[in-house]
Amino acid sequence: MKSILDVRATLERLETLSVGLIGYRSQRFPGFYIQDSGYSVAWVAQCAAEIADTPAARNSLGLQQALVVTNPTPDGKEMARELHDVTLSGALKALHDHKIIGKDVTPFLLAYFTSTPMA
């Protein structure tokens, strides 16, 4: 999930829309380049087969809502929290300074974060 989004509000909206949420081998809802955004997920799947079975089970119950599967950054690959927070702060300032909005935000954020050393 993008670091600039309000995770709590997003999770509440998903719940309001009855969108299912499954963590892939993790009870923590991941952030942009971090494993834990500070929020948890209620359901965890340990393998791809469990994830694949979920829509079929929902469909058999007549539930047509979407399903979001969270997949955190692998161990050893996440950005240090402090570096993430500093990088995000710089990226948000740069977005504002360059008046970047709409569909241009995501490519800009990706470029900004990938130009930052992860260690």
Question: Would you write up a description of this structure?
Answer:
By secondary structure, this protein is of the alpha/beta class. The chain folds into two domains: 7-70, no CATH class; 81-114. The protein is 42% helix and 13% strand. It has four helices and five strands, in the order αββββαβαα. A three-stranded parallel sheet has the order 4-1-5, covered by helices on one side. Strands 2-3 form a two-stranded antiparallel sheet. The longest helix is centred in the last third of the chain and has 17 residues, at 81-97.
List keywords for this structure.
119 residues, alpha/beta, 2 domains, 3-stranded parallel β-sheet, two-stranded antiparallel ribbon, 42% helix, globular
